Amino acid sequence: MASPMSADRFLDVLRTEGVTVVEVGDWRHHNRDHKGPWGPVHGVMLHHTVTRGSEHTVELCRQGHANLPGPLCHGVITKDGTVHLVGHGRANHAGMGDDEVLRAVIAEKALPRENEANTGGNRHFYGFECENLGDGEDPWPNAQLEAIERAAAAICRHHGWTERSVIGHKEWQPGKVDPRGFTMESMRERIRARLK
Questions:
Q1: Could you tell me which of 83, 76, 52 has the C-alpha nearest to residue 62?
Q2: Rounded alpha-carbon distances, angstroms, from residue 194 to 30, 83, 153, 191
Q3: Cα angle vertex 142, ends 48, 61, to 5°?
Q4: Cα–Cα distance between 164 and 103 in angstroms, integer?
Q5: 60-67, long-range: CB < 8 A, 24+ apart
Q6: What is the spatial distance between Cα 101 and Cα 10, in angstroms, rounded to a whole number?
Q7: Locate the N-acetylmuramoyl-L-alanine amidase domain: which residues (predicted)?
């Protein structure tokens, strides 16, 4: 069980890991905390945005839309490898997922196949939305993949977690396919190597 980092500490650990960070608006106080607590945190969840264009993507993830108010994550990782911080606190990104997956993340064990959506995840995961169409054809530039690796590793390093604390939305919630275009196994391997 871990308490979420303060906004200042979050920014510091990302920069220490070599992440290029842009602070967007009053991200430190932009959250959904009025819907419930943020924490304890147990892991990092990765998503793709199904959008094109960095400026549009960042604004959408910051503001949300009519059916889902923002922030939709804590950081938006654009194609150029920049992490745009858009929120700190509870964010609308994980939604409902599988309690068995959460237990596996907490225990840092192999993930079971997700088959139900019976547990809220927004309070338990740091979330990164990654700019990509999610069609399996839109490329993932090396700079972006490295930023994903560095950002996730930074959080794991701070909390003393291994790469097993990093999951994709598709591993949490039935019916989700994100992130699509790279495997979570390959990303966890990259994070594992970075944490050595």
A1: 76
A2: 30, 18, 7, 5
A3: 25
A4: 12
A5: 61/86, 61/129, 62/24, 62/25, 62/27, 62/30, 62/86, 62/87, 64/92
A6: 25
A7: 27-180
